[in-house]
Amino acid sequence: MNEANLPVQDLEEEDDTRAWVTIFADIALLLLVFFILLFSFSTLSDQKFEETILSVRRSLGQQDTEEWGLRIRTDTAGVLMDQAAQYRQMVESQKRVFSDIRYYQNQKGLEGVVGAHLDAGTITLRLPASALFDLGQVELKPEGKKLLQDLKDVFIRHHDQRINIQGHTDNILPRPGGRFQDNWEISALRALNTLRYLMEIGIDPKRMTATGFADLQPLYPNTTDENRARNRRVEFVLEKHIGG
Question: Digits of tens for pLDDT over the chain (244 positions)?
């Protein structure tokens, strides 16, 4: 029996069946394309990425790259891969610098005075403010200058490190009518005077910055005299920038 002899209802049901199959095939094809793209992104290989995109394009009957609606370039993927590789290299380099600093600490007997920490490629050398300054003062004392002279060798040896000198205080405000207006001034002047002295003894000023944080970044709650003493500190944050 041909279609001409089929009842109208049967013809409509057959058309509906064919339409459903077409829609299902379209959805299956789109899912296949989606999973292929996910796989290519996960491997992040330029060659596989390009081959996959070309394969999908050919399967859809599109040969000319200009006809591709959403053109996906592999340039960005390549840049991201380069940046990731540079970051890994930087982190490994900082680990070696950190190991050298710890060795230097042992040689100079500075372990109990200078704290050293490594976090995601950033090295922080932490000194209690009392090692550099008298209480409530911003001028370096002789013992503090001697300590900075010891650290100078580390900074010169690792000349590729940028040094951010950070001053921190506790939450006790300067006395009213005193020399300093607030803890911002104390922390900033301590960081700045430290920078100036390092510059005097041979550290390139282009490598250094000075920042005062007052009492905004305490290590411990400012609830006891011991904790407040720990929060009064000067930190040297060493960073090697990617590509720098």
Answer: 555 554 555 555 555 556 667 777 778 888 887 777 776 656 555 666 566 667 766 666 655 555 444 455 555 656 666 777 777 888 888 899 988 999 888 888 888 889 999 998 899 999 999 999 999 999 999 999 999 999 999 999 999 999 999 999 999 999 888 899 999 999 999 999 999 999 999 999 999 999 999 999 999 999 999 999 999 999 999 998 665 4
Architecture label for domain 89-239: 2-Layer Sandwich (3.30)
Which tokens go with 230?
């720990």
- Other beta carbons within 10 angstroms of residue 64's beta carbon come to 7
pTM over 0.85: no
Look at residues 214, 173, 164, 162 and name the one whose alpha carbon lies nearest to residue 194: 164
For the chain, what are the domain ranges? 3-72, 89-239
115-119: strand order across its sheet: 115-119, 122-128, 233-239, 162-168, 208-212
